[in-house]
Amino acid sequence: MAGDAAHIHSPAGGQGMNMGMQDAFNLAWKLALVEQKKVKPFLLDSYSIERSAVAQKILSDSRRMTKVVLLKNHNLQRLRNFIIKFILSIPMVRHVIANRLSGVMLNYPDSPLNAGSTRKLYGLGSGRRLILKHHFQESNVPQFLLLTIDTPEARTMILRYPLLLKAEVYSPPHKNGIWLVRPDGYIAAIAQSGNWSVIDTFLSSIAANHDC
Prior knowledge:
The protein is α/β, with parallel strands linked by helices.
């Protein structure tokens, strides 16, 4: 289901290992919540949709890299070496390449799990990986994070879905928004402050029972 057992391609760029680990990150929390009967089984359907698109992109990248590495024409080899040396001398380019090869900046814009009243809110949209300082691995129980201003409404939402939401309200990227973050660090739902129906609708749609 994940790792080298699920995909075979050129090792150029070392992307296979990164993809395999991220496959596991994506699938593990979904399997855990379904196995614990906290969410509906349809949540698992999102795995292939999200990760297959990533796999296709990585397969395409690795094929192109392999062709460049295996050039046999000496003139093309010299040109390749010159271009690579030049572009890798630029720090910003090295940073972009590292992020692309590692896969940490990949997003899921077409995920069926994305929800929200707007495509993006303050530059952050559903399906985007959100870099957080919070520790997702505090326990063996995967839960969603609620990023918003700490209000009675936020606490009420946590009390309504104690099996799905961590008990703490976390600082939001912007005070006028609500972000629901998946256990793997991707944004599941976004809403303007006060629009709790978006968050409630999403959680109730995946919860195994309405009283979770």
